[in-house]
Amino acid sequence: MFIRAINLIENYRNLSHQTLTFDPAVNFLIGENNIGKTNVLELLHHLLTEAPFEAKDFEDPEKPLCVQMELAIGEMVCRMTVQQAHAAAAASCTWECDGAIQAKKPKIPVIYDAAARLTNARSDMDGTEAGKLWYAAHLERRIVAIAKKQAAAVCTDATGQRCLPLVMILDEPEIHLHPYRQRRLIKTLEAMVTGGDAAFRERFKATTGIDALKGQIFIATHSPSILLGDYHQFIRIHQPCRSLRIAVVCGAALKMDYRLYKHMLHNFIYLKEAMFSHCIVFVEGDTEFGAFPVFAERYGLDMDARGIGLVKLDGADSLRRCMRLYQAFDIQTVAIIDRDKRPAYRNEKDVFFTDGDDFEADVYDHFEWEDYCRCAKTLQKIDAFPFHQGGETLTPAEGRKRMHRIRPRQLEQLKKSKNALRGSILATAVTRIPRSFMRVLAWLDAQIPGE
Fold first, then answer.
1. What pLDDT, on the 0 to 100 scale, is given for residue 130?
2. In this predicted model, what pLDDT tens digit does every residue of 292-321 receive, in sequence order?
């Protein structure tokens, strides 16, 4: 048994008119504080326990509330429709399986746990099960207790095993955990509910007489570390710019072509963090990656306050696929790449180009003589950058003439070793932000509102 979708929401908190499609195993609800993640968790809990809705659940107290949930139970597709006229009224619930109204409702055990803030603060050594992860052990004990109380929910699968269907709803289980522990926790829980943990299955059967769980997990999270490697499991809840309503993008409902999917796997480490961003800035390589935050700070643009992430492409050839990938999750994108890529990306929206051949040329052409000297001396200390002023003091005009004369050799040296440290040094040394980067920063300032 697993929940396939909530395909009708009318008048429930801020989720009205949204459609949610779910992964059969694990679902991560991603979004800012107070955006609606917990609303989804509580809606699922209401539906599974058939608890009546309260006044706070009605977006408009003058209108009725209606929700429809779709489940897969064995080979059957079942729909649960809950309606409630107002907060003081009783809720009515209708079950329909394969098109026929069902008098008998299936039993669906559920765990709703928002207590990780307390349990994770305990020492992991307090746990004796589930790999000594205290929170996993805490949940295991709850699963065993439910299995003993709800024996009527146990079903037999196609292989003859006795299985307990279970929906596990967790609010920020990563709290107080080190990133490695976060990943270990979610992998442990996934293995427990999908039958991949042989040690848990043995303990579970010895204690309850039941062979395995057939479970599904829903997790509200603020941590990219806890996300697993499957975009189908991501549910991104966000508020589009200048919109009063939220929007929801479900990875389980997205269809990616093979080339985009391969590209996603290659960039998954960036994608996980981007799920928490309002906008992603793509830069071409390491030096731009080191320079852009320096330029943003000087411009007065707080990237964290605006929810702006930075991703380096390792070459511009993948830019179009990268933009399509992030845009599929309603994440705004903007890019700055080298001028020689203009023919390939001239018609691509929100792609900016350097004025010179590349980043180094743009910075060099914006150097004042004092900027150049300061930068060259710093680079000379870290990687023997050739800087030979000759001991004389030059006026700014004389310095610019010398910079123009040595420009080809200096750019060749700057491009020999591209890394984020060099990018940061170049960006710190130049007094004026290059015009090409100013255009991107101005776009971000206009398009991405602050908190």
1. 44
2. 999 999 999 999 999 999 998 877 888 988
The Cβ-side half-sphere exposure at 169, using a 13 Å CA radius, reads: 20
Rounded to an integer, what distance in angstroms lies between the CA atom of residue 166 and that of residue 154?
A: 10
Mean pLDDT (the chain, rounded) = 89
Using pLDDT thresholds of 50, 70 and 90, give the confidence band for residue 15.
Answer: very high
HEC sequence for the chain: CEEEEEEEEECECCCCCCCEECCCCEEEEECCCCCCHHHHHHHHHHHHHCCCCCHHHECCCCCCEEEEEEEEECCEEEEEEEEECCCCCCCEEEEEECCEEECCCCCCCEEEECCHHHHCCCCHHHCCCHHHCHHHHHHHHHHHHHHHHCHHHCEECCCCCEEEEEEEEEECCCCCCCHHHHHHHHHHHHHHHHCCCHHHHHHHHHHHCCCEEEEEEEEEECCHHHCCCCHHHEEEEECCCCCCCCEEEEHHHCCCCHHHHHHHHHCHHHHHHHCCCCEEEEECCHHHHHHHHHHHHHHCCCHHHHCEEEEECCCHHHHHHHHHHHHCCCCEEEEEECHHHHHHHCCCCCEEECCCCCHHHHHHHCCCHHHHHHHHHHHHHHHCCCCCCCCCCCCHHHHHHHHHHHHHHHHHHHCCCCCHHHHHHHHHHCCCCCHHHHHHHHHHHHHCCCC
Q: What is the predicted pLDDT for the residue at 250?
A: 96
Q: Are 272 and 324 in contact (CB under 8 A)?
A: no
C-alpha–C-alpha distance, residues 432 and 371, integer Å: 9
pTM value? 0.87
* N residues, the chain: 451
pLDDT of the residue at 94: 92
